Amino acid sequence: MEATDEAPTGVNESELPSDKVCDLVEFIVCGLVDDEDSVTLDVTDSEAGSLIEVTCSEQDAGRVIGRKGRTIKAIRTLARALGQRVGTAVEVEVVG
Predict the structure, then answer these.
(1) Which CATH homologous superfamily contains domain 17-95?
(2) Is the confidence at residue 73, as pLDDT, over 50?
(3) How would you class 66 by CB atoms within 10 Å of its CB: exposed for 0-12, middle for 13-18, buried for 19 or more?
(4) Nearest alpha carbon to residue 27 among 58, 59, 64, 70
(5) Which GO terms describe its cellular component (predicted)?
(6) Could you give the CA distance from residue 39 to residue 68 in angstroms, rounded to a whole number?
(7) pTM (2 decimals)?
(8) What is the rounded average pLDDT of the residues 5-23?
(9) pLDDT > 90 in the chain, percent
(10) CA atoms of 56 and 26, how far apart (whole Å)
């Protein structure tokens, strides 16, 4: 086997670390909501880290947040864990 400098198939070299975290958050949120088409994610990257703002319908916002905020807390925990693995700080906010 020879070592090559090429990226493995399916890996985009221009992809930011926050893109992987964004994909995870989108996957989880879309699994929770009734109206997947209303879900949008706005990612803001800075030197301090990344902010992912989740926008969904008002009816689905309650599902994403969960009772006493438990669901969004779990989503934030997963996003931060993945962010740490890919080398970026991550915050996740739900915008109504």
Answers:
(1) K homology (KH) domain (3.30.300.20)
(2) yes
(3) middle
(4) 64
(5) cytoplasm
(6) 21
(7) 0.80
(8) 67
(9) 61
(10) 11
